[in-house]
Structures are given as C-alpha cells and as structure tokens.
Amino acid sequence: MNSAAFIVIGILTLAAALAAATLPKLMHAALSFAVTFLGIAAFFFLLGAEFVGLVQVFVYIGAVAVLIVFTILLTRRDIEKDRGFNWSGVVVAIAVFGGLIWAIFKTQSLSGVAPEMPVLTVKHIGEVLMSGYVWPLLCVGLLLTAALIGALILVMEERK
Amino acid sequence: MTVTLQIFLIVSAALFCIGLLAALSRRHAIFILIGIEMMLAAANLNFIAFWRFSPEPHQPTGVMVAIFSIAIAAAEAAVGLALVIAVYRHYRTTNVDQFDQLKG
Lengths: 160, 104
Fold this sequence. Notes:
The structure holds 2 protein chains of 2 kinds.
Chain A: H1 3-22, H2 26-46, H3 50-74, H4 87-106, H5 122-131, H6 134-155
Helix pairs in contact in A: 1-2, 2-3
Chain B: H1 5-25, H2 29-52, H3 61-91
Helix pairs in contact in B: 1-2, 2-3
C-alpha cells in the first residue's frame, strides 16, 4: 500500500475535519465537511473498496452536503450571530481519543501487513447483495421510504 | 513506513473524536449533525480497514456493512435536517441552547 498517498490523504482529511468542526462560519464548515468526505472516499479507494468510495462520493457529497447547504440557506436568519463554544466538549473528545489510542496500542494483533489486494467487482457485490443480504437490503429500502415520508411530514406546513 | 491496520485505526479514532468535538461543543444544530455524520464515517472507515486487513478479504462482509451504514446515515441526515427546519420554523433559531421548552 502506498504510504505517501496515505500520509497526504490522512493529513488532508483530518485538517478538513478539524476545519469543519471549528470554523465559525456555517457555510465554510459545510464545504470542509464535503472535503472530509472526499478524503474518506479516497481512503476507501486506497483500501481497494472502489464501490464503497463511489457510493460515499455520490451519497455524501452529492446528496448530504447539498442538503446541509440547503438547510443552512433556509435557516439563514441567525447564522451570523456569534455562538458560544463549549470547552468541556473539547475535554471529553480528547479523553475519548486518549482512551481509543491506548486501546489501539495495547492490542497486539494490529500490526500485520495487508494481504494482496482482493479483486472485488461490482458484479460480485451485486451477487452477494442479492443472495445473502436480501433481507437487510429490503429493510434498508423500507427504512429509506419511511425516512423520506417522515422528513416530508416533518417539514410540511401546518394547516389551521 | 508500511501502512498497517493500526494507522488506519488511529486516523479513524482521530476522525471520530473530531466528530465528537463538533457534536458536543458547537451550539448550532447543523454542526451537531455534521459531527454525527463524521462519527458514522469514521466507523465506516474502520469497517473497510478491518475488511482489507482480514485474512480473508474475498468475503465482502465489511463492504456490505459499510454500504448499509452509508444508506442508514443518509436516512438519518435527511430526517435530522428536516427536524432542524421544523424546529427553526417554530422557534426562529437553530441554537440548541434555546430549545428548552421541555426543561423541567
């Protein structure tokens, strides 16, 4: 696996994530959010899961980032006001990070080198999705329908 | 430097904690959603990394879990943003500190 590409993508992704979490302007944060998800999709490509990387780009950058930008524009009236920053959240996040790092370094079996790149075609993914994962697929379809209807009902104008 | 599973787990832990930071410390509802999405993406990165470094990467289990997780995260984002818009219509603000009508 290419370590130079890993370092570049990692630095870019983490910097964009930090920008998305701390930038005061909401629109800048939303764009950094899109860059973060592009970086995660690049990680998926690096790991050999091209299909998931493409799904990530389509769903997150194509749909979720656009939805977030639309919501920002629709709730624009109080964007420019200064908001407090809760510093206890920083303490909790650093504590969780320390705990996770401790657990990762404590585990011995994580330093193996990757096996050779598996060939994972979309055809294979489709076959597995339609044979072994049919019920989860149907449940996700039902969930997406319910979420769509629920979102529509939530934002519908109340009639008096 | 060889890229091992450990480094991927460290990157994903950092991403998770940045998402946690955004979800806990910002007061704007959309920022909280962005943080939650980031935490979900870190979990997806872990699934794919564990699949890639597993002894049998020809079984696409991690890929399947990541695909379902992305679909569920998209549904969650749609409902969450609809909630933000509904709450904004009611309170005329998106600051979560002011959503205190249910406070006892």
